[in-house]
Amino acid sequence: MVSGLIVSPKKSLYIFLAVFAAYSYFYQGGGWNQNARFALTRAIVEKNKFDITELKHSSGDISCYKGKYYSNKAPGISLMSVPVYFVLHRFLKKENLTEFFKISSYIIVLVTVALPSSIMMTFFFRFLLLLGNTTNLSLFLTLSLALGTPAFAYSTLLYGHQTASAFLFLSFYLIFIIARPALSKAGPSFKPIFLSGFLSGMSVLVEMSSLPAAILLFAYFLLHYKKTRYILYHLGGYLLPALILFFYNKSCFGNIFHTGYKYQVMSYLHEGMQNGFYGITYPKMYVLGQIFFGLYRGLFILSPFLLLAVPGLFFQLHQRIFRKEGLLALLIISFYVFFNSSFYFWWGGASMGPRHLMPALPFMVYPICFVRKIFYKSLIFFCAVSVFINFMGTSVRPEAPQLINNPLFHYWLPGFFSQKLSISRASYDGYETTEKIAFNLGELSGLRGFASLLPLIIIWALFFWAITKNKDRP
């Protein structure tokens, strides 16, 4: 049953701050994926153009078309970074370019990745309350998603997956709210309907693999609204992100439907993209096993509590009131599993878990609330283990090198317990430095090893106390 519980603004703010404190506490340095996005932002601000020819040395994730080099990524994150970098480039000192890029990229990650992700977690908490869950369970599952899955790590990296995840879930939340008059006092109106479409469109501009999920959200919207004007409002939201993406593709690659993935520079990436449709063929059983249970990239190895999503979805689909939402969650999860298990580059390079599954995580976590009474003790244990694993990996370096077959036991655990934290030496200008580039905020204050993590743990404890000390009133 949908609850009419009203969440106090103060409690929502505490949840946002607790999660944002975690995401902003870590700076992971550069890498191919991050550098390709950052290079496009630099090219726009510094050179007023899309090609990154002068910066092509900074990343291997590049494309070449008619003699010019481009980022091979969807342009959304880079475009969102432009106003931030414009201000930083104008006002920050540049005597030491490495330090300038470090500060600039850190702030850009906060604004374009950590901020949307933290906002999404706040509304995820509110959504769980609307499903009729207690404050404690809603808080528990929200923090499990935020800190007990690779969403934690990817909220500290300049990748597109977590921002796309935030946009998709926020779009879903808006549709869920406006479809229920009891929760939307004013009823259907232009702003929330338009915004839900805009957020879906932005998810595609940020990460083009979000397109099928955005289409599924549109179908979910149509289940609730048949009037032409509401449909046009919603589609109007998609229009601006779509036009931006088409303009970018046409300007860079001569065709609105051609992307950087079609013109990869790296030969093994280019060859992989020639298989099937942009590297997507058919699901492979070996890959399915690996992305869930494999020691290399297994999601359930990093976040074992997600196993409860299976019975959770089963029970949700057998409840008539939330069957539509359960079916949507199942279809979104199924698409991303299909995509990841069919994609030639399924392991995602140097990464933490199957990064292509990140946008499906909110839709995997919330159904767990439907089996809370059956698996209560197991849920607490597995969530605690999941938070520790992801906290550990984020503290050391999320991007485990590709050649390490068992990152958890051969990279993150040894690194964490030997207190080798924030170890990345990769910078945003594309060069490995002799000293580490990454940091956590505790290290900036002079703390080392485990002591550098204590300020964050204290902050979490204070926020948790503030969130739970008072119960919400109807």
Explain this structure to me?
With 474 residues, the chain is mainly α. The chain has one domain (9-468). The protein has 20 helices and four strands. The chain has helices spanning 9-24, 32-47, 76-91, 97-130, 135-147, 151-154, 161-178, 190-206, 211-224, 228-253, 267-273, 285-293, 299-302, 309-317, 323-342, 361-365, 376-396, 407-417, 441-444, 454-468, and strands at residues 26-27, 62-65, 68-71, 439-440. The chain has a two-stranded antiparallel sheet with strand order 1-4. A hairpin with a 2-residue loop joins strand 2 (62-65) and strand 3 (68-71). The longest helix is centred in the first third of the chain and has 34 residues, at 97-130. The two termini are 15 Å apart.
As a percent range, the share of helical residues equals 55-70%
Please state the average pLDDT score.
Answer: 92
Classify the secondary structure makeup into a structural class. mainly alpha
Broad shape:
globular
Number of helices: 20
Q: Domain count, please report it.
A: 1
Brief overview:
The chain is mainly α.
Helix-strand layout with pairing:
Layout: H1 9-24, E1 26-27, H2 32-47, E2 62-65, E3 68-71, H3 76-91, H4 97-130, H5 135-147, H6 151-154, H7 161-178, H8 190-206, H9 211-224, H10 228-253, H11 267-273, H12 285-293, H13 299-302, H14 309-317, H15 323-342, H16 361-365, H17 376-396, H18 407-417, E4 439-440, H19 441-444, H20 454-468
Antiparallel strand pairs: 1-4, 2-3
Helix pairs in contact: 1-4, 1-20, 2-3, 3-4, 4-5, 4-7, 7-8, 7-9, 8-9, 8-10, 9-15, 12-15, 17-18
